[in-house]
Amino acid sequence: MKVLFVGTGLIGGSFSLAMQKFGLISEAGGYSRKEANLDRSLELGLIHKKFTNLESGVKWADWIILSIPVDVIDIMLPEILDIIREEQVVIDFGSTKGKICETVRTHEARSRFIAAHPIAGTEYSGPDAAFASLFEDKLMIICEDNHSNPAAVSDFEKVCKMIGMNLEYMEAEAHDRHLAYISHLSHITSYALSNAVLDKEKDGQVILELAGSGFESTVRLAKSSPEMWTPIFLENKKMVLEALDAFLSNTTTFRKLLEEENMEGLYQFLEKGRAIKRVIK
Questions:
Q1: For the chain, which terminal residue's Cβ has fewer other Cβ atoms within 10 angstroms, N or C?
Q2: Percent of the chain clearing pLDDT 70 (strictly above)
């Protein structure tokens, strides 16, 4: 099977390496607006062939996997569906699903599209960040699978299982709400804390000297790519604002308890939050 990876950074590059590791791909192609990324991807073995023309790459491939910013997927996906053959499959790995699915809901080739989201990643980006084991024991969410060709979905499921992933299925709206709370909000708080500290310590030197592991783990996500995350926040605006309101309500409650020096209230607030240990080991 020949797979065109539109975007050969952390996610696309790692998926290519994983498929290669398990012999699930005969040839990997890459397309990117940044030719330097393609050249580096070739050097690293993420792809075997580069395309600077999207249509040529699409015509060459059996599968087309989109791992690029979600606002670009909105534009590119319908264009790809316009030109694919009946046996080809297009899969997107975007972190939002509502707008993407709605954009192609009535497209005549909608059944050749699989809306998927691998819950995996690091704070790093680009081809050099890719590694073959990224997806082991991670979750692949497939959205609105009832709108996709059953045989195509089955083939994709087999690939995901072969590289060590678990599968979950949900509607696009439910996906976007869940991700707003468990992923998008954590990135916002990380960026916000980073900005607050950097504003306080303009030279950054004191931060580096005093920062411990707690601070480092909390702001780690602030190293993530703004090019990727700005469109995610805008595309999932409704759900992100809902999550932010819930978060700000909690911070307001904490502030009030602290102002009142309410020791029992503070203790109960912390104890309630500590219950997350039942979910995160």
A1: C
A2: 96
Helix (H) or strand (E) holding 169: strand 166-170
> How does pLDDT run across 8-24, given as a tens digit for each residue?
999 999 999 999 999 99
Residue 238 and residue 137 share a domain: no
Do 71 and 90 fall within a single domain? yes
- Pull the structure tokens for residue 55: 């249509």
Query: For residues 225 and 257, what is the distance between their CA atoms, to the nearest angstrom?
Result: 36
Q: Which of 170, 201, 232 is the last residue of a domain?
A: 170
Regarding whether 160 and 116 lie in a shared domain, the answer is yes
Rounded Cα distance, 156 and 158, in Å: 5
Give the C-alpha separation, 73 to 93, whole Å.
9
Domain endpoint, select from 145, 170, 195: 170
Domain that holds residue 32: 2-170
| Cα gap 270→273, rounded to integer Å | 5
Q: State the pLDDT confidence band at 217, using cuts at 50, 70 and 90.
A: confident
Residue 274 CB: number of other CB atoms within 10 A? 9
Q: Model confidence over 49-62: pLDDT tens digits?
A: 999 999 999 999 99
Residue 89 near residue 156, CB atoms below 8 Å: yes
The gap from C-alpha 275 to its chain's centroid, in whole angstroms, comes to 27
- Read off the pLDDT band of 280 (50, 70, 90): confident
49-51 and 63-66 as β-strands: parallel, antiparallel, unpaired? unpaired
Task: State how many domains the chain has.
Answer: 2
The pair of three-digit structure tokens given for residue 42, joined into one six-digit string = 């070739």
For residues 147 and 20, state if they share a domain: yes
- For the stretch 220-246, pLDDT in tens is 889 988 999 999 999 999 999 999 999
| Strand-strand pairing, 113-119 and 49-51 | unpaired
